[in-house]
Design a protein that fits this description.
The structure is a homohexamer of 68-residue chains. Chain A has 68 residues and is mainly beta. Chain A has a domain of 45 residues: OB fold (Dihydrolipoamide Acetyltransferase, E2P) (Beta Barrel), CATH 2.40.50. Chain A is built from 1 helix and 5 strands, in the order βββαββ. The first copy, chain A, has a 4-stranded antiparallel beta sheet. In chain A, strand 1 and strand 2 form a beta hairpin. The first copy, chain A, is globular and about 35 Å long. The relative contact order of chain A is 0.32. Chains in contact: A-B, A-C, A-E, A-F, B-C, B-D, B-F, C-D, C-E, D-E, D-F, E-F.
């Protein structure tokens, strides 16, 4: 996908929790769980459900770093 | 770290590229590379350099999903 | 906290309003009220309630300026 | 300003540092310093300079909380 | 409005859908529909309803590009 | 593109300005100009230049509204 967002990580949906306006979606990416909040409409239009193959997309300006 | 951001992934700095105001930092997280753009000042104050152990922090509202 | 986010302001929780997926949290910071929208899960896991001491964390790329 | 962004805090510019594309602006808000990264073009078009009265504007979905 | 956000597009509200914490607002901008998620409180305080003239405001660091 | 981001607007690149780390790209979308700040690396990897057909992509949680 020729999108400028530099982080595009393959994963698999682990859980979808729908609210009235938003949806909380958990995705397994390698050994980590990544959590995403998108609109309920997007979750429904994409038909997201447990086990779906998805790509997690994150703009690099949204990524912070903590020194351990 | 008791921070509300739900995504806190352990990694290791792979590259630091400094600009005048911003810095582009690449971090290895498992089998993926995650790219982060932070201020140059933060990169310098944290003393970020290749090999450093860091935690990648991302608020869940910044995470999009693409259905494969 | 050695986090790249440059804005880390001490405050005290003034109100927590929980929705199904998100939570709206108001924090007193000096003479201002700062409002935050986080996931309900984070609000519950942090056990946020009125009077709690918290740090408001904001990445500098998310801060706009208006000339008065 | 009837803008949906819930955080609109009055301050005064403490420092402006221009890069080629971005600008790093520090604003005194009460007893805190708030740092903002905007485009160089906006900094120039607004004519931002030390001492200017400004309003810091932040969408609530961009505000994280850390429990102390 | 002398705000640093570089994208300020005139439009007209097409739909408002309120949740407990958030609101999903659709705005017609030229020939496009732009969708916004703001807090329910902002939607109510602005009194947003179908047909209202509004300006869509987006910080340029939040805008991604896809090559077609 | 089955991406959760609800705003995907067709446009054409009007200008590309490269910095050391970031790039400022202006896109004509209908009668409006939309400005985007992405990494220089993405601008170069996508080979963005004036006249290119692109899609502007914006997550709905990043869109604010001002009542006129």
């Amino acid at each position: 996908m020729p999108l400028s967002a530099r982080n595009q990580l393959p994963g698999r949906v682990a859980e979808v929790h729908l609210g009235e306006v938003m949806a909380h979606v958990t995705v397994r990416v390698g050994k980590n769980l990544v959590e995403s909040v998108i609109t309920r409409r997007s979750a429904e239009e994409l038909g997201l459900k447990k086990g779906d193959a998805v790509t997690v997309v994150i703009k690099s300006t949204e990524v912070m770093l903590q020194k351990d």
